[in-house]
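U., I forgot to send this yesterday:
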Amino acid sequence: MNTNHVSSSKIDQDAAMPAAIHAVFPDTIQRLCLWHVLNKYKPILNELYSRFFEKRFKEKFESVIHHPLTVSEFESAWGMLMNEFELNADQMLQALYDMRAEWVPCFFKKDYCGVMTSTQWSEGVNNIVKRVMLMKIYHYTSLPNR
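Result:
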């Protein structure tokens, strides 16, 4: 029997997924997909992006998520961001912070993930394909004699 296993996986926040992966690949390191995490909080984040547009919150928030090389750099940058925008009491941002080790890239620098970074690319392509197909279906069904 082959003893090779998947060493790491990135998943969305579906509660059943970690249990299923653990049952089949018990030694696999599981991390949440950054795109799925941020997409889940998108409406609230968009409100913050709009509210602090002039102060460039979105740019700074994304920089804090993507650029720290170490956990301590992330922790420091997150604290400065929360202080700058007076968001220390924001429950949604606190929830994101509480699960940071599961989705912020600097927390899994030591874990080998191959070229896998996120499902963002495939999700984005899927979204485009769906929209194009729906537009073509709508166009086709709205033609006379159809």
